[in-house]
Amino acid sequence: MTTLDEKSIYGPVTSWQTDFDHADPSYNENAHAIWSELRGACPVAHTERYGGTWLPVTHDLVHEIAYDTEHFSSRGVVVATVKPSDLPDAIPAPIGGAPPITSDPPFHQDARRILLPAFSPKTIDLWEPEIRLLCRELIADMKAADVVDAATQFAQHIPVNVIARMLGFPPEDGEKFRGFVHDVLEAINLEPGKRAEAFMALDAYIAKQVQDHIDNPRDDLTNFLLNAKIYDQPLSLQHVGGSIILLLIAGIDTTWSAIGSSLWHLATNPVDRRRLVDNPALMPTAIEEFLRAYAPVTMARVVKDDYNFHGNEMKQNDWVLLPFPAANRDPKEFENADQVLIDREVNRHAAFGLGIHRCLGSNLARLELRVAVEEFLAAFPDFELAPDEVVKWSVGQIRGPRELPVRINARTL
Amino acid sequence: MKVQVDQSKCQGHNRCYAIAPELFDVDDLGNAFAIGDGVVGPHLAEKARLAVANCPEYAISIVEE
Ligand code: SF4
Q1: How far is CA A113 from CA A120, A228, A230, A294, B30, in A?
Q2: Cβ-based contacts of B13 with chain A (< 8 Å)
Q3: Which residues of B touch A122 (CB under 8 A)?
Q4: Model pLDDT for residues A38-60, shown as the tens digit of each residue
Q5: At what angle do helices A237-268 and A107-115 cross, to 10 degrees?
């Protein structure tokens, strides 16, 4: 998928409190135990890695930072060996490289307004039949096998296909998108020069697609962005390209992870699986509970100026991770936080973030997740983790199973 | 009993609209507002409370009259 030589510049983690690394393979696999340990001990962990990074793990602290755009900038949202401040040509705050996710007030709101209507619940609901059909096609392709990989054969294709259709990009480029997403979100601990190479390939691909849309306009999100205006001026090509990067990168691994984690839960919890099969009316609370308990997305911020945050001496340009998944498991905010209760009715989870950067694609992600789970369960009402095979978890800020071999014990066709 | 959405806090998570479409609607940007004057009939009181309890931004409140 990727041509990069993927060698982390860091060694194994020596302490989760003082030397954590969210790209260490053991982090995502053991995330819930790690957060719980840190919640009792710090609750803001620190590491010198990535040029200095902080990790607050309680709901209160994550909430506070998400709301505090005065001290924390969104200019960088993916912690990596390259910082925005290391790149002299990078687009500065308040715009950033991929508006609006990398933007700060006041520009943020104006850039976000352009995209909001395309992702409002009523616009997104129109996609349901297409998403359902897509799920059924994927399921038909794997119907006969006894063991299927619910992550690579099913979950990952759903967001890739949907975003390609929305942007009007060639559907056969799906594999390429997954490569880009991997380079941006997972290959974060490489030597900085190598990371820059990956970004150049992504920029070149987007520029080519944008040019094709300028030459051959059609009715899709890319042309919508090309026609959009901000402050009475057309968006710059840089802004269009940045927003496309956001839509392409942000929707794929995240939704893939949410679907994969939900299916992982159902593969490992037969009681919940049976309850959902027997009583589909539980689906709405079950989906919100999967989003809470297995929230895939940790965001990041950059410290604007030296700042003492609850006794932690944060330095200008330090990274701060915003682990919404850890906030969602904070026992101070949720009763029985570590139990997955598919009929949980009071569930003020922060899976899609908090504050002005609430996930733009949340309605789409939720729809894809619900339809994927519904269709998978309808086709395979009984499945479990395949014995003798291994579940592989992602590395980095997006948490979910990248390989999920399950054995199908009952099928409806 | 009435429900109110504080527009300055609502970020469009759409939990309220999913839980109680009888009480909340969303605009073109995906932000929520209370339908009509926000009055909640007794049969919808429980749904109204659930909407309040599930809003991640604490944007919804109930006013008892
Ligand atoms: S749940 Fe809260 S934030 Fe979400 S749309 Fe309703 S009022 Fe707005």
Answers
A1: 11, 11, 10, 29, 10
A2: 352, 358, 362
A3: 26
A4: 998 889 999 999 999 999 999 99
A5: 70
HEC profile for B1-65?
CEEEECCCCCCCCCHHHHHCCCCEEECCCCCEEECCCCECCHHHHHHHHHHHHHCCCCCEEEECC
Instruction: Mark yes or no for CB contact A116/B56 under 8 Å.
Output: no
Give the range among A68-82, A251-265, A333-347, A367-381 with minimum mean pLDDT: A68-82
Please tell me the distance in Å from A355's CA to the nearest CA on chain B: 6
Q: Which of B14, B52, B54 to mutate to test the pocket of ligand 1 (most atoms within 8 A of CB)?
A: B14
Q: How many A×B Cβ pairs under 8 Å?
A: 53
Tokens of residue A174, six digits: 């799906």
Exposure string over A247-271, b if 16+ CB within 10 A, otherwise e? bbbbbbbbbbbbbbbbbbbbbeeee
d(CA A38, CA B13) in angstroms, rounded, equals 29
Q: Using most ligand atoms within 8 A of CB, pick from B7, B16, B24, B54 the residue to mutate for ligand 1.
A: B16
Is residue A350 within 8 angstroms of chain B, CB to CB?
yes
Over chain B (65 residues), the average pLDDT of each successive run of 10 is 96 96 95 95 95 97 89
Domains of chain B, by residue range, sit at 2-63
ipTM for this prediction: 0.95
- Assign domain A25-407 to a CATH class: mainly alpha
Classify domain B2-63 by CATH number: 3.30.70.20
pTM for the whole structure? 0.94
How many angstroms separate the CA atoms of A254 and A159, rounded? 9
How many angstroms separate the CA of residue A384 from the nearest CA in chain B?
A: 31
Ligand 1 centroid, distance to B60 Cα (angstroms): 7
DSSP reduced 3-state for A86: helix
